[in-house]
């Protein structure tokens, strides 16, 4: 049954969680031929956090979710839907239901959503549709990844980039709609530039049937092409989202991009003529945490008092697929 009075959405609370174990650039120099200067000048990353047992995607996502629920002032039992944006579930069948159980969100339906580093933005738009149609009132959106599981620690092109973490937000039905505009894009013809591909070996089932069985290769990335893709496509998709929101770029209070590389963040801000003091970045501390990076940066900025109610935020995710998207929203009710 549709709610005819509160079909807008508001993002009412945030939370985040990172693993306890840091890995700084100096320690990486003991693994591969690199240097702190080489990593920081090319990526802006100084350290990242790695999830070690008993930490898991489920524990990080649950911790971030508890914070978000507390910040929003609602109980787990009030949640109608849990969306977990991740590419690295603890269980290939999905981890959202485990998070639902850990939270005690007894009436929530839960499922995973996979769009790699764009996952949080894709999840935000997906969650909004359920609320706007009146189907659900309270949605918990989590972005979380443990990419350290899938990194080749001998490949200096990728092992310096990635870290682990989770971030979460609560979206609620609201009289005014705080999601002002969005745009989502995909281009599978460029999939080979960034992937985590299945790698099988053959197992004989019968004399005539040989079934592939196996696991996945480590993350493979063409850094130059991904960089080129990001600096071209991200400003375009933010412009499209701003057009949908009927806003000019000068109305943006904060820019929160997927935290992949400081040079990408700087280049996009420059192309959009967004001044440095409006750009939120924590890539130096956490590296690329995939779907976790935007909600992690958002939550830190909220808790630091930077982001205040009614501030207008432009955000954009981009990554494997290739996928990219942008959303313009106002913080709070």
TrEMBL record:
Which residues belong to any copy of the Beta-ketoacyl-[acyl-carrier-protein] synthase III N-terminal domain?
A: 111-188
What is annotated as the active site? 117, 258, 288
The record's listing under Pfam families reads: ACP_syn_III, ACP_syn_III_C
From what superkingdom does this record's organism come?
A: Bacteria
This enzyme catalyses: 2-methylpropanoyl-CoA + malonyl-[ACP] + H(+) = 4-methyl-3-oxopentanoyl-[ACP] + CO2 + CoA; 3-methylbutanoyl-CoA + malonyl-[ACP] + H(+) = 5-methyl-3-oxohexanoyl-[ACP] + CO2 + CoA; (2S)-2-methylbutanoyl-CoA + malonyl-[ACP] + H(+) = (4S)-4-methyl-3-oxohexanoyl-[ACP] + CO2 + CoA; malonyl-[ACP] + acetyl-CoA + H(+) = 3-oxobutanoyl-[ACP] + CO2 + CoA
Alphabetical GO CC annotations of the entry are: cytoplasm
Q: Mind telling me which InterPro entries this protein's record contains?
A: ACP_syn_III_C, ACP_syn_III_N, FabH, Thiolase-like
Biological process annotations from GO: fatty acid biosynthetic process
Specify the pathway: Lipid metabolism; fatty acid biosynthesis
> CDD domains in the record, alphabetically?
KAS_III (cd00830)
Region (ACP-binding) residue ranges read 259-263
Question: Any idea where the Beta-ketoacyl-[acyl-carrier-protein] synthase III C-terminal domain is?
Answer: 244-331
Keywords in alphabetical order, please.
Answer: Acyltransferase, Cytoplasm, Fatty acid biosynthesis, Fatty acid metabolism, Lipid biosynthesis, Lipid metabolism, Multifunctional enzyme, Transferase
Q: What class of enzyme is it?
A: transferase
Q: What is known of its domains?
A: The last Arg residue of the ACP-binding site is essential for the weak association between ACP/AcpP and FabH.
Q: Which NCBIfam families match?
A: fabH, PRK09352.1
Q: What is this protein called?
A: Beta-ketoacyl-[acyl-carrier-protein] synthase III
Species per Swiss-Prot/TrEMBL record:
Anabaena sphaerica FACHB-251
Species classification: Bacteria, Bacillati, Cyanobacteriota, Cyanophyceae, Nostocales
């Amino acid at each position: 049954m549709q709610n005819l009075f509160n079909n807008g959405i508001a993002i009412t609370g945030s939370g985040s969680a990172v693993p306890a174990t840091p890995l700084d650039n100096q320690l990486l120099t003991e693994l591969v031929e690199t240097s702190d200067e080489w990593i920081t000048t090319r990526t802006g990353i100084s350290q990242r956090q790695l999830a070690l047992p008993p930490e898991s995607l489920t524990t990080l996502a649950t911790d971030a979710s508890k914070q978000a629920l507390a910040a929003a002032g609602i109980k787990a039992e009030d949640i109608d839907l849990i969306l977990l944006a991740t590419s690295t579930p603890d269980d290939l069948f999905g981890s959202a239901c485990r998070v639902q159980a850990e939270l005690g969100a007894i009436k929530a339906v839960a499922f995973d959503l996979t769009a790699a580093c764009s996952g949080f933005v894709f999840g935000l738009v997906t969650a909004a549709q359920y609320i706007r149609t009146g189907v659900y009132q309270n949605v918990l959106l989590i972005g979380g990844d443990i990419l350290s599981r899938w990194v080749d620690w001998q490949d200096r092109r990728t092992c310096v980039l990635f870290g682990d973490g989770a971030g979460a937000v609560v979206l609620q039905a609201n009289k005014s709609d705080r999601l002002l505009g969005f745009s989502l894009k995909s281009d599978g013809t460029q999939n080979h530039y960034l992937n985590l591909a299945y790698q099988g070996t053959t197992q004989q089932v019968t004399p005539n049937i040989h079934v592939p069985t196996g696991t996945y290769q480590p993350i493979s990335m063409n850094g130059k092409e991904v960089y080129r893709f990001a600096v071209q496509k991200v400003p375009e998709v933010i412009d499209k989202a701003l057009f949908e929101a009927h806003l000019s770029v000068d109305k943006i209070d904060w820019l929160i991009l997927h935290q992949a590389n400081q040079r990408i963040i700087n280049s996009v801000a420059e192309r959009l003529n967004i001044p440095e003091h409006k750009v939120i970045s924590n890539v130096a501390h956490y590296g690329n945490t995939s779907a976790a990076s935007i909600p992690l940066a958002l939550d830190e900025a909220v808790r630091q008092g930077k982001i205040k109610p009614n501030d207008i935020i432009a955000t954009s995710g981009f990554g494997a697929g290739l996928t990219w998207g942008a959303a313009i929203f106002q913080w709070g009710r």
